[in-house]
Amino acid sequence: EVVLTQSPGTLSLSPGERATLSCRTSQSISSNYLAWYQQKPGQAPRLLIYGASRRATDIPDRFSGSGSGTDFTLTISRLEPEDFAVYYCQQYGGSPPWTFGQGTKVEIK
Amino acid sequence: QVQLQESGPGLVKPSETLSLTCTVSGGSISGYYWSWIRQPPGKGLEWIGYIYYSGSTDYSPSLKSRVTISVDTSKNQFSLKLTSVTAADTATYYCARNPGYSHGYAHDYWGQGILVTVSS
Quick one: pLDDT at residue A94? Predict the structure, then answer.
């Protein structure tokens, strides 16, 4: 099983600041198969990024993804009030085919 | 606009079978992978299993002995059965669509989720 470790667990920032979230995988994966989701309380996760760096439909360009091998990053260039949420990374491959990180909470400082 | 909607009982007794259905509207079930994913209260996401529209399946090794996923393409629905449930199976259950390689095997549409509580 590919284990995903996200850091930090919680990120306390102010609106307008830059957020940098990390996702490390226990073994090297294809960057084609790394995705990021945003989840707000009481809502389903929403796909932000797939293929490590491709924004999903209607996702603002302040969200960007990067990385390869075992180290991946989600960056929010300037936090808007609606961006405070929990973010999950997800990989595809191996057994089980899909695994998720434990999440990073971005909270208002 | 594709929409997914989970349905089923919100309360299941221990040792019984959890049964949920996901109805897909605004698009066809054909050509996609369809997953069930769950989230215990206050915790992270756990992938349960998937079914391809053609009927092939794969399940999480930790749940494989208790899970069955099936599809009814005529009704644009797919279903989850989880047997011998315990309190540890209490979670919000999501159904989700996966386009496969074109989207890096990411889940692009999700249902709103249904909270299933296991309790006597």
Answer: 78
